[in-house]
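Hey team,

Filing this mostly as a record. A colleague (T.K.) asked me to run one chain through the structure pipeline before their review meeting, and I want the input and output archived in the tracker in case anyone asks later how it was produced. No errors, nothing strange. Just documentation.

Input sequence:
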Amino acid sequence: MKKPFGFLLIVLVCNLALFGCSKSIDMPFAPQAIPTTPTVSGQPLTYISQFGSKGSGNGQFLSMIGVTSDSLGNIYVADRNNYRVQKFDSMGSYVTQWGTAGSGQGQFATLSGICADSSDNIYTVDEGTETVQKFTNTGGYITRWGSVGSGNGQFLAPRGLTMDPWGNVCVVDAGKQDIQKFTNTGSYVTGWSTNGSWDSVNSDPDGIACDQSGNLYTPDYNNYCVIKYSKTGTYLCKWGSYGTGKGQFGTLSCGICVDKNGIVYVADYGNQRVSDFTETGTYLCEWGNTGAHTLGPFDYLCLSPSGKAYVMDNLTVKIFGP
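Output structure:
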């Protein structure tokens, strides 16, 4: 062992003499720059198929105001002007529906969002009655909560809702400019304002999504950006600006979701595309704006467990996949 070690020591000394001590020692052991490349890579999704048309029949829509997927890949569409929720299988075959016009249990006035929990219960939020309603995945009414007002547990113009990893329901309210968190039976947990020093003008939060750590993301209509909060409401970061370039937005709407790998999908109504980002806002890719089935001005999208994206566009649901 001594002989090889001595040989290596001689080689090292020779190298130091040849290249200079400061350069050959400092460079290999200098602090390395933190990589700027994202830890996840976005992949543009491509068109697969679509379903739906204008009307009031089964599988038809009059005003699509939200879409969500359950754990089995079934798709639920909030059909505002037909006052109902419709359920489809993963390829768009009609399964069932529920709801009528009104303000009572199981009725809808002005639907404004929809989401599913890990047990496949379905939640809707209604800007007309200022309430959240909870249903089974076949439309059985379970409970409801909320009322009009500016207090805790009240709403003025709710624009979307999502579930966090612990089964809490998070509702974003453009009228109150806040986010409120509830248990899945409607008990108020906490809430916070979406206005702050990070805004150039008052926020107009329009949609909401949650990642696997419980962080929340809202597209801000007035500021052309996505704002990220911790699970307790601490402002973390934002990204985006007005424009047509990569990472910029034309007009933001309610469409935003986060997949299990931490990729954030943002619906850009103005530029008629979906843009993908890391959880800290690094631009990854865009899709939906090329090919024979380009998106029109659209608002909503969701992801299924299989990785397909369902985009609500011109009274149809377009399916995209890897």
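Quick notes for T.K.: The domain at 64-321 is CATH 2.120.10.30 (Neuraminidase). The longest helix spans residues 2-19.
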